[in-house]
Write a structure and sequence with these properties.
The strands form two sheets. Strands 3-2-1-4-5-6-7-8 form an eight-stranded mixed beta sheet, sandwiched between helices. Strands 10-9-11-12-13 form a five-stranded parallel beta sheet, covered by helices on one side. The protein is about 35% helix and about 15% strand. It is built from 13 helices and 13 strands. Strand 11, helix 13 and strand 12 form a beta-alpha-beta unit. The model has no long low-confidence stretch (mean pLDDT about 90).
Length: about 425
């Protein structure tokens, strides 16, 4: 039995998690539940301080439960104390939709001087095929990968806000740079996940992750375009989706919305597109889905303006309440949220914006008019707005109160489900 394998099985291995964000911190907490000691690494000293003081900054992660089990630091020399190194850093986009691997590159650069024999490095950040090999394996010069040190790629598959699938229940895709790397990776991840899906190469695993998210992007783009078409035809798209969903094969329902948000789906298709272009192929299908999803906030605003004209309301100087800022329901994550683009467009048209989101108390967004903070849904607040726009439909929001006291409701999430051929003068479906 390999020395590292012995440590993993005996729960003696120290796990280093690089990046203490929405992926890294919950992952670190999961490791401690199995009895492992965890060292968290982050260049954000504020996060490091909060972790060490057990101050929660991510919903559903109670740091007080893991007192003294998770040590956070910005000093990468402590990598030498780790047996397992998990990299969960952001992979955003630069201008012109070019992949930004700076967080991965800087992380690898920071750990290289402190690597030792018998360590496992696993990249979990989403990136284009070839990243693990080019940015990790090829950078390790003084150790034999597959013998002295082990390199894996195993993408995170989290679905924030999903009540039905816990992390351990989601099959874990795993790949290794060599067969020995894969063997060690399977031993490690097998402790935390009920099932593993081993693939033949790190490139395949990277491709798999992008495929999953592009599949969602394309289907969301399709149903968003169908929503636009249904509006021209005066057809309730949601009724049509429900009816189509009764087919027992060949159809999977996706819900339309005001656009896409989050850390993956709006970004990952561009990683695949960029890499494909480098190899000489310009993908069309992926690009078109992205275009449709990108225009949705503008389409929402144009329909608000159109309905206002019918009601003889001028959008300039109108008072509008945005309901929900998070990029999806029941989470406190506002990254790439379409709500921000909607607010931006509305403010440029002269509308005065307020918002309500019980999970987002302060916006990570510079409003044109003021620093916006979440307001309550008191009667007097709701009555002063010309309309409420439901962008994100958290379950904990009081919708009956909104319906009772709002003058107009633009429902972008089908929160108010009306029966076919039944209308509600207050509710406009977008």
């Amino acid at each position: 039995m390999h020395e590292l394998e012995k440590k993993i099985r005996a729960r003696k291995a120290v796990i280093g998690v690089i990046g203490l964000g929405y992926v890294g911190l919950p992952l670190a907490s999961n490791f401690t539940r199995k009895g492992y000691r965890v060292i968290g690494f982050d260049i954000d000293k504020a996060k490091v301080k909060k972790v060490n003081k057990q101050i929660n900054y991510i919903k559903n992660v109670d740091l007080k439960k893991y007192k003294k089990k998770i040590l956070a630091t910005s000093k990468f020399n402590k990598i030498s104390l780790c047996d397992i190194i998990i990299i969960t850093v952001p992979t955003p986009l630069k201008k012109n939709f070019i992949p930004d691997l700076s967080f991965i590159k800087n992380s690898v650069k920071s750990i290289l001087p402190f690597l030792k024999k018998n360590q496992l490095i696993s990249l979990e950040s989403t990136s284009y095929p070839g990243t693990t090999e080019d940015e990790i394996t090829k950078k390790i010069k003084n150790k034999h990968v597959g013998k002295d040190i082990f390199v894996c790629y195993s993408p995170e598959r989290e679905d924030p806000g999903n009540r039905y699938f816990k992390t351990k229940d989601i099959p874990k895709v795993i790949s290794g740079q060599t067969s020995n790397c894969l063997k060690i990776g399977k031993i490690f991840y097998g402790i935390f996940f009920k099932s593993l899906v081993a693939v033949s190469s790190t490139k395949t695993a990277e491709f798999t992750k992008l495929l999953e998210n592009i599949y969602r992007s394309v289907n969301i783009g399709l149903v968003n375009e169908m929503k636009i078409i249904s509006k021209f035809m005066n057809i309730n798209i949601h009724e049509a989706i429900r009816a189509a969903s009764t087919k027992p094969f060949g159809f999977r329902p996706f819900d339309p919305g005001p656009g896409m948000g989050g850390h993956c789906i709006p970004i990952d298709p561009f990683y695949m597109s960029w890499k494909s272009k480098q190899l000489g192929y310009d993908p069309q299908f992926i690009k078109q889905a992205g275009n449709i999803n990108t225009i949705m906030p503008k389409w929402i605003v144009s329909n608000v303006e159109k309905n206002f004209k019918l009601k003889k309301i001028n959008i300039r100087n109108s008072k509008l309440l945005i309901i929900g800022i998070a990029y999806k329901k029941n989470i406190d994550d506002d990254r790439e949220s379409p709500a921000y683009e909607i607010i931006k467009i509305l403010e440029k048209k002269g509308a005065k914006i307020s918002y309500h989101d019980p999970l987002i108390k302060k916006l990570n967004f510079k409003s044109i008019t003021k620093n916006l903070k979440s307001i309550s849904l008191r009667q007097k607040n709701l009555k002063k707005f010309d309309a409420s726009i439901i962008v994100t439909d958290h379950d904990i929001i009081n919708y009956s109160h909104i319906h009772k006291y709002s003058k107009i409701i633009f429902d972008c999430r089908n929160r108010f489900k009306t029966k076919p051929n039944k209308t509600d003068d207050k509710i406009i479906k977008l």
